[in-house]
Every structure is written in C-alpha cells, then in structure tokens.
Amino acid sequence: xxxxxxGSFGAERGLAGSQQAVASFDEEHRGVVRQVQGFLHxxxxxxxxxxxxxxxxxxxxxxxxKFLSPLNLSVVLQQVTIVAILxxxxxxxxxxxxxxxxxxxxxxxxxxxxGRTAVAYGVPVIIAFPLGLLVGLACGFLNGLxxxxxxxxxxxxxxxxxxxxxALNTWYSNSETIRSQDMEAAAPFLLWLGKLIKLYxxxxxxxxxxxxLKGWVVTYGSIVMILLAIVxxxxxxxxxxxxxxxxxxxxxxxxxxxxxxxxxxxxxxxALAGLICAVGxxxxxxxxxxxxxxxxxxxxxxxxxxVVIGGTSLFGGRGSILGTLFGALIVGVFRNGLALSxxxxxxxxxxxxxxxxxxxxxxxxxxxxxx
Length: 371
Hints:
The structure is a single chain. This protein has 371 residues and is mainly alpha-helical. The protein has one domain: Orthogonal Bundle (ABC transporter involved in vitamin B12 uptake, BtuC). 70% of the residues lie in helices and 2% in strands. It contains 16 helices and two strands. Strands 1-2 form a two-stranded antiparallel sheet. The longest helix has 27 residues, at 262-288. The radius of gyration is 27 Å and the shape is globular.
C-alpha cells in the first residue's frame, strides 16, 4: 500500500468518532428592549411621529374643544412654517456632521435685501426677489468654502459668519422696518406666502363639498414648506447627491476612499442650505407682513431644536427631512397646548428643553446598536 493510501486510511479512522452535526449559527434571541432599539434604529422617524401623536392626545384631553379645533391647528401649522423651513436647511448640514449657527441671520439678511431693494430703492421685484435668493446662496457658499479650504470646525466658522451677516444686516437695513402698507404698494409679491387659503372654499370652488374642512385655513407659505419637504426628501433618498451627504456625515474618510469628493459635497450642502434660508426669508416677509431686521432672532436655536427632536443625529449620517418636519410640529404643538392649558411662557421653554435632552439621550441609546 502506498504512503498516500496509508495516510488517507489513517485520517478516515481518526475522523470516525468525530461529531457529524452541521455547524449552525442561529441568531441570538433578542429581548424586547433590544428589538425596540433595533426598530428605532432602522426607522428613526417613528420616534418624533410617536411623540407628536402623544402630544396631540394629551392636549386634546387637557384642552378639550380648543386644541383640536380647525382654527387652532391651522395656527400651529402657520407658526411652525418658518422654523420648519430653516430646520430643513439645518438638517442638510447636520447630516454631514456639521452645524450652521448662521441660518437665522442669513434668513433675516435675505428678507432685508428683498424688501429694502424693492421698496427703498425702487428696484422691480423681478430683480429684488432673485437677488435675495442669490444672497442666501452666496452666504451658504461662503460658509462651505471657509470650512473646506481652511479646515475649520463648522461651529467656529458659522459662529463667525453669524456676526458678519448680522453686521451686514444692520448696515443694509439701516435698522429700519418696512411697513406692510409700503410692501403692498411696491412689492406685493413678497407678501404672497402670507396670504390665507380657506380650504373649504377652495374645494367648493372646484365642486367638492367637504364639510370637515370648514374652519381650516392655511397660508401659501405652509404649502411651500410641504412642497420643499417633499423635494428635499426625494433628493436625499433617491439621488447620488443624497447618498453622498449621508456618506460624508457617517464616515468622511470612507467616503473619500470610495471616490466621493467630500469637500464638494460640503460646499454644495452649505450653499443649498443658504438658498433654503432665502426661501424662509420670503415666508418670513409674508408671515410678519413686512420686513424687520430684528425678526426671527431665535431662529438659529429653533431650527436646531426641530432637527434634534426630529431624530436627526448630531453626529451625522442619520436623519430625515420628514423627521425635522415632525420635530417642528412637536415644538409647535407643545407650545400651543401648554399655552391653552394656562401655563406661563417659561414653562413652555422648560418643556422644550426637556424634549431636547430626551431626544439626544434616545439618539445616543439607539446608536449603541451599531457599536
């Protein structure tokens, strides 16, 4: 017998008493808490939606007959329009693991440029309006350019441009407010997003009698907010640019190794955020019925609040526009509900602060599943 045959025979005898069972890799049984954690990690938008529904239920009981009235809910929607629009701009930036402290000042500066150029200087609105949009785009582009070229933290850069844009706002506005009457006479188009639409009358005009819509009033600004949310959601979920945004925020080094130009993505994100702020400026003019260089001073923090409560991670790479929309509605619902309950403004701020801390805590807890 050859050496190979002897070796083969010996190996077979040695394996004769071995286990014959096939190795199995059954998934470890997960507890209920772990399953909930996994679900929330997979569907982060479900968290703000659940909180929003809980808030609606609570305040419909606490303030019966008031909170759920069509007029009151219409007011809530109008109140959150500007915060939601700025929150969408902030969402794009935070998805890249950055932050933009200048979004509020960009919005105010754009509103001043649109209004003052049209009213004080008599420039046709067909020029003044695009000029305001261009200013927003340029401000965002400047933020992105400084961040990528000088390799500075977004927090520091946008804190600096916050002061710069604020100074430009004071200089160009001359600290003067433009009244609604002057706006209406010189540039009524800039007030268009503040015009009210009675939904019942709107559908009745096309032959649909829907009694449940009686009392519901929305503005064109709210409609623009919803359309903007749809467009941005599509861009983030269905385009290469959206995938680049998420990849840049999740792991910039891996994104670069995969061929993504992260610097170009960041500049595009900040520029787009600036343009969205200019749209917010248009909505702001319609909301207050004029132009004020002091309007929207808390918009920076409000936009971040909507993003955080909406489930977007401050560490980048996870979140959605829809979540931010829910986050803005949560803030609006809680402030409105607490006001109808008779609580002072300070307790409304207290409740929003608690919501922020809880939202970040939940985000940290959910992130552990990927660790």
